[in-house]
Amino acid sequence: MQLSRAGEYAVRAMLHLAAINRQRVTQIGEISKTWGIPESFLRKILQNLARSGLVTSARGIGGGFNLACPANQITLLDVVEAIEGKTYLNQCLVGPEFCENRSWCAVHVVWREAQNAFSTILKRKTLADLVNNPEFIEHFKLLNGT
Questions:
Q1: 1, 58, 83, 88: which has the highest count of C-beta atoms within 10 A?
Q2: CA dihedral 33, 44, 75, 27 (to 10 degrees)
Q3: pLDDT value, residue 22
């Protein structure tokens, strides 16, 4: 399993919004320029994030996007699944209808354990955890010229 480009860009956009810390509405152009994300692609990603309830949007002059709730309440798993859907390391983990070997397959238990570890780690990390990292703070300042 590999995170798609949309998933990667969604994480970057959400980190940007978390770093702004709900102080103001952020326009697509600012996020696009800061992170090198094509605006048309970013627009679609942010629409998906809005549909999932992770961001809010305001239309018109002065409009843009903001986190829908505090950064310490949004996990990395929330962001990834909003764009990618539920992720599975192997098709056999989707459900019994996708694998006839589940009852005897020795590796199925390993896939399930790895899946659980993956989900647990992403659930444990919030946007606030990530943007409060000193290296991120310095890099974000450089990106924004502050």
A1: 83
A2: 40
A3: 65
